[in-house]
Specification:
701 residues, disordered C terminus, mainly alpha, 3-stranded antiparallel sheet, two-stranded antiparallel ribbon, globular
Length: 701
């Protein structure tokens, strides 16, 4: 694109604003109101207790008030052997009758034994009866009919509640799995079974129980050490601030030390390869080629060949030459990049409040996530109970068909399939609302993505406006307007909500497509159709690239919106062509910034991590008495390291935005002005010197 005609009266990002992308702004507000309405509808219909509490075969959840289950909060399975794994138990329904009970059984017993002795051992009958269907008290009914109609379980096993469900009480004795110190049990159908059958039925429960105890220990560690974790994060915050402030003095030094360090290391590598190559001269077998010896799993074999070291040496020489040539040809652009980094540090020094803006973005995103999660749960639990025919006979043609428990006994299903029952399967429904729950969930996810992207866009535009007002101040800092961050935030909300929403919408559509592709990929994992998998993989890759490109375009479009106040499309186009005209500078600046900020994050997270490690392992004598007694010292240590990295990332994201904004302003400045008295540069003296411009406006002297 050709350089544009500029407004000669332009004096920074404050004047002549008007609302942009109004249609998108109106649509965005309507969508938000619709989203609130969706939340209200979901809240009216949904009941999260359906997720928290298990549901019995009659469609009532355990502990439900004003029902027989009021004091029965645990789910009991008649025949746990029919359940393959706890995943089936938690997510889907197990093909056996389920009842709510107040406590799990604590002994082995079979219905056959209890019924045979009910006359002279009524206490055993009364104990067993509490695990039968409510109201059942007919010990004279034949065992075969009781088991067919599933009035009572064929057996009970010592169990304990887990996730509000009764699971066998496993323990290990001398390496042998037992339940209540027994390795075998009667299944109530005339067979003696091994406890390992139960273990397979409740597969992985012990692991989950162990995980639960580990979870409790981790929680205890957090409860004891939270105070020290916060101190660690505060130190990380201070280190991040210090790093950013010092960058104006050290950016160049850090970068050149690293570059010459890399050149030195590669140089040493070349010398070492040559030494090895020379050293192997005359040693038998060293002159063989890689082709001669073929593929070897032991890599050391290759290191005894001269050809290997020669190849290494050639590769390293190539890398060394490329780096040196890049430094020679790009030296001026690298100097500009470093000067912009220093300028960014100076700008943040003048507008310190910007460093704490990520907290606002974080809070906005946290609100979006919370609202989305609550709405999703209420939508998922807004179904009515759906009942299906559960038949003991495998050949029953009515099995798994939906049924109505109130009219079930009058149908001919019970005649054709003796013992068949109409039991609760899952929550769903046939009404218009229930049919569209999946669509509502998609809409919920889409608006969530839109809002999150809008929150990020608002942050980028606000910061860009604040830093642009610094750059376009003729005399720094005297001409920087009062409260630059707040004014920029106000401008973004008042005039540019539509433009920001438009950019966020494009990104949200691409992200939703990516989510759907991930879902399809997950669903098709079992299939062996390699072409479909290949196609999905290509699509995922394309949309990932598209999302990255759009994020880059959006970011620079928001900077242009903050500077000029034009609409999204115009700003995106102008930003793109401006960057294309300075494409090498963009590449160099991007890499130099990425490297220095990555170095900063590693320094902050590593420094605080080392400090935390010495503290929590009691290696700092001064604080040895202060260290809390922990189950796992790595719990607070990892929290501090990850937390420090995120704190540093928050601060440095502001800095990266600052550098990007200053860079676009710098490119605009070069195209708009020529350094004459009529068109003086707005850039700082250090940037001006690097460009080697002769005319320097009087105020820079």
């Amino acid at each position: 694109g050709e350089p544009r005609k500029f407004d000669p009266k332009f004096r920074g990002p404050i004047h002549n604003r008007r609302c942009t992308d109004l249609i998108c702004c109106v649509i965005f507000i309507v969508v938000i109101l619709g989203y609130i309405a969706l939340g209200v509808v979901a809240w009216v219909h949904g009941d999260p207790r359906k997720v928290i509490y298990p549901t019995d075969s009659y469609g009532q959840f355990c502990g439900q008030k004003n029902t027989l289950n009021k004091n029965k909060t645990i789910l009991f399975y008649f025949n746990i052997l029919k359940c393959a794994s706890p995943v089936v138990l938690i997510n889907l329904q197990c093909p056996t009758t389920q009842l709510c009970v107040s406590k799990c059984p604590d002994r082995f017993a079979t219905y056959i034994d209890v019924q045979a002795s009910y006359r002279y051992r009524p206490d055993q009958w009364n104990y067993f009866r509490q695990f039968c269907k409510p109201g059942f008290n007919n010990p004279r009914k034949s065992v075969a009919q009781v088991l067919r109609d599933e009035d009572c379980p064929s057996m009970i096993i010592p169990s304990r509640p887990f996730l509000k469900r009764c699971f066998p009480d496993f323990s290990t004795k001398n390496g042998v799995l037992t339940v209540a110190n027994q390795t075998t049990f009667k299944d109530g159908r005339g067979k003696t079974r091994n406890v390992t059958d139960l273990r397979e039925a409740a597969n992985g429960i012990n692991n989950v129980l162990d995980a639960r105890s580990v979870g409790m220990k981790i929680f205890e560690d957090y409860a004891i050490s939270w105070y020290w974790i916060l101190i660690g994060l505060f130190i990380a915050m201070m280190l991040s601030l210090l790093f950013l402030v010092l960058l104006r003095f050290t950016a160049g030094v850090l970068f050149w030390i690293f570059i010459f360090g890399v050149i030195g290391i590669i140089g040493y590598g070349i010398w070492h390869c040559y030494w090895e190559y020379d050293h192997l001269k005359g040693i038998p077998g060293s002159d063989l080629t890689v082709y001669d010896i073929g593929f070897q799993t032991d890599f050391k074999v290759y290191l005894q060949l001269r050809q290997t070291w020669l190849a290494f040496m050639i590769i390293l020489c190539g890398v060394e030459v490329i780096i040196i040539l890049m430094l020679i040809f790009l030296r001026n652009r690298i100097r500009i990049a470093i000067a912009l980094l220093k300028e960014g540090s100076r700008a943040i020094g003048y507008i310190m409040s910007t460093l704490f803006y990520p907290i606002v973005t974080f809070l906005l995103i946290a609100i979006c996530i919370s609202y989305w999660a609550v709405t999703a749960v209420f939508l998922a639990t807004s179904g009515e109970p759906v009942y299906k025919v559960m038949a003991n006979q495998t050949l029953c043609k009515y099995a798994n068909l939906t049924c109505d428990p109130e009219t079930f006994n009058t149908t001919n299903v019970t005649k054709l399939c003796p013992g068949a029952q109409c039991t609760f399967a899952f929550y769903g429904g046939e009404s218009l609302y229930h049919k569209y729950i999946f669509i509502f969930q998609l809409a919920n996810a889409f608006v969530f993505l839109w809002l999150v992207n809008f929150a990020i866009a608002l942050g980028q535009c606000t910061l860009a406006g604040a830093f642009a007002s610094y750059y376009w101040a003729y005399r720094k800092p005297a001409d920087i307007p009062l409260w630059p961050l707040f004014s920029s935030f106000g401008r973004a909300i008042r005039y540019h909500t539509g433009s920001l929403a438009f950019g966020a919408l494009i990104l949200a559509i691409v992200q939703l497509i990516r989510v759907i592709l991930e879902y399809l990929d997950h669903k098709l994992k079992g299939t062996q159709n390699s072409f479909t998998r290949f196609l999905l993989c290509c699509l995922k890759c394309c949309f990932w690239c598209l999302e990255k490109f759009l994020k880059f375009i959006n970011r620079n479009a928001y900077i242009m919106i903050a500077i000029y106040g034009k609409n999204f499309c115009t700003s995106a186009k102008e930003a793109f062509f401006l960057l294309m005209r300075n494409v090498v500078r963009v590449a160099v600046l991007d890499k130099v910034t990425d490297f220095l900020l990555f170095l900063g994050k590693i320094l902050v997270a590593g420094g605080v991590g080392v400090l935390a490690f010495f503290f929590f392992t009691q290696r700092i004598p001064v604080f040895a008495q202060e260290v809390p007694m922990l189950n796992y010292y790595w719990v607070p240590l990892l929290t501090v390291i990850i937390g420090s990295y995120l704190v540093a990332h928050g601060f440095f994201s502001v800095y990266a935005m600052c550098v990007d904004t200053l860079f676009l302003c710098f490119c605009e400045d070069l195209e708009r002005n020529d350094g004459s008295t009529a068109k003086p540069y707005f850039m700082s003296a250090s940037l001006h010197r690097i460009l080697g411009k002769k005319k320097l406006s009087p105020k820079k002297a």
